[in-house]
Amino acid sequence: MVRMYDLHDMVEMKKAHPCGTNRWEIIRMGADIKIKCTGCGHIVMMSRRDFEKRLKKVLEHASEAE
User: Fold this and answer.
1) I need a labelling partner for 61 at 20 to 30 A (CA). Which of 3, 20, 25, 52 fits?
2) What is the per-residue burial (b if ≥16 Cβ within 10 Å, else e) of 4-25?
3) Spatial contact of 38 and 24, defined as CB atoms under 8 Å apart
4) InterPro entries from the xrefs (predicted)?
5) Number of Cβ atoms within 10 Å of the Cβ of 44
6) CB distance 45 to 64 below 8 Å
7) Model confidence pLDDT, tens digit, residues 2-51
8) 6 vs 63, which has greater pLDDT?
């Protein structure tokens, strides 16, 4: 099975956050996904369907960072 994204991965979304950063950390996964802006710390929660629609790419996997 190919893993697209997982908990604590850094991802880039299609639209940048108003603070100017486009780097987010996945902090909760389930039916909904919660992401945290690495620039200002703002937390956004959205459905998995919306998340997958707005996801541009995975910047780094949490397992690679360790």
Assistant:
1) 20
2) ebeeebbbebeeebeeeebebb
3) yes
4) DUF951
5) 15
6) no
7) 568 999 999 999 999 999 999 999 999 999 999 999 999 999 999 999 99
8) 6
